[in-house]
Amino acid sequence: MSEEEATDAPQGRKPDSSKFREGKFTYHQEVEVDIATITNLGDGLGRIDGWVVFVPGALPGEKVVARIWHNAANFSRGDLVRVIIPSASRVQPRCELFGECGGCQYQNMAYAEQLVWKRKQVAEVYERLGGLTVEVEPTHPSPKQYGYRSKITPHFMTPRRADFPIGFLAAGTSRRVVDVTKCPLATDAINAAYARSRKDIRANPGRFERGATLLFRDCQEGVVTDPRETVTEQVGRVKMKFLAGEFFQNNPSVLEDFVGHAIRLAKASGAKHLVDTYCGSGLFALSGAREFESVNGVEVSAEAARKAAENATLNGFLNCRFIAGSAESIFANVPVRGPETAVIVDPPRRGCDEPFLEQLHAFNPRRIVYISCAPDTQARDLKYLCSRGWKVISAKPFDLFPQTRHVECIAALEKA
């Protein structure tokens, strides 16, 4: 069972005893649990007489005491009270808010073991959701395990007292904000700018009628806080300009390796041309411009396609073309034949819809390189393509978010 399948788990704040559902355990009953694995949400999972118990902060191989606070139809949830037998991989979290702040799940696990579990989780979700038996490669590590984030977005609710919290959502909630004075995942420059902003906001709470989300992006221009400001990032030999508030991968220490792996997979197919779907401001397309005769980026957003074209000009690439395509005919204006191309697919977390996958299949590229921040929806889409005659020939996780449960994965497919 994955935690995302545990559909009747409560959302928001943990219930008090008056809202507790009678079941396997009583409210706040303390139980000993042997932890067998980690879920896709980063919680320890153990069983008592076959009954599943989720325990955040518990690691595989540990025996722990958990205090039950929720019963569901076929599982329970508990808080970690103490560790009886610790894992050899247990380490001291660097952040004193670990376990309270919802940003990190793995700070208590040695980094090498984080990489092992992220690989296991990708392989498991491929098999469970995709029906795919794939030899998943070892997870590519991040050169930086702390101080790597080049963007954070702390927030606060409507100020009602002098010391109102500014920070991130508490673990397991959708409303309560934990007061975070410094984030060890963020760059030093961001933490310095964040400290100044916290002081200014606290000194002038009357100007805020409601809560707000803040932006801190560390880029070539310094730390930018205006989401509408154009900023610059360098990835390998490619310079990228985009709006500070737009999506852009925020671990520069591993980004060149991440993008390079995708381009090498595309190039190794022998394709003459590259097509980058969901191309955004053009990162993958432009990173492949030196390796292919032509590059075509496709975007449903006309604004994003325009920005990508500007980035091509900025880098002096004459073989790049960016198309604002409709979702119904995404490949209609691509001027190259499918069998001569490699296609990069980098969708949002929800993955691709079936009409897109059918168009991709019909385009019949020499190779598909599918990049995903959500292995579950990636597995679903790979299953669909494999049912149309494709085969996964490579799958490699990348750790863009050390200390968290999140993992990116790059898979390659060819016709079986």
Keywords:
416 residues, alpha+beta, OB fold (Dihydrolipoamide Acetyltransferase, E2P), Rossmann fold, seven-stranded mixed β-sheet, five-stranded mixed β-barrel, 7 helices, 21 strands, 27% strand
Overview of this structure, please?
The protein has 416 residues and is of the alpha+beta class. The protein has 3 domains: 83 residues, Nucleic acid-binding proteins (OB fold (Dihydrolipoamide Acetyltransferase, E2P)), CATH 2.40.50; 196 residues, Rossmann fold; 74 residues, no CATH class. The chain is built from 7 helices and 21 strands. The strands form 6 sheets. A 7-stranded mixed sheet has the order 17-16-15-18-19-21-20, sandwiched between helices. It has a 5-stranded mixed β-barrel with strand order 1-2-3-5-4. It has a 3-stranded antiparallel sheet with strand order 6-11-12, with helices on one face. Helix 5 links the parallel strand 16 and strand 17. It starts with 29 loop residues before the first strand and ends with a strand.
